Amino acid sequence: KRKYPEGQMLQSPSGRKPPRAPNRSTFACPVCDERNLTPQGLLEHCEQAHTSGSGRGSFSAVCPICMAMPWGDPTYVTR
């Protein structure tokens, strides 16, 4: 087994860093760009800030939670 100094980034044999994985822990609101929302926090935020009862009308947006999933479609717009 190879031992690496603490904090050292592991690299592939070719020396290249692995591609960055998308953040699937926190999300930005697709309507107002509020950031660092958990999946539950994003749902609650959208219900409170962007539903027809909030006086802002309806909207269409790409769900950032769905888009972050490996099978997500970044062109699918929910209404």
Q: Measure the end-to-end span.
A: 52 Å
Extended strand count: 0
Summarize the biggest pleated sheet.
none
Low-confidence stretches: none
Give structural attributes.
0% strand; 2 helices; mainly alpha
Characterize the structure shown.
The structure is a single chain. The chain has 79 residues and is an all-alpha fold. The chain is 20% helix and 0% strand. The protein contains two helices and no strands. It is elongated.
Brief sketch in words of this structure:
With 79 residues, the protein is mostly helical. The protein has 2 helices and no strands. Helices cover 20% and strands 0% of the residues.
Question: How is the topology of this model organized?
Answer:
Elements: H1 39-49, H2 64-68
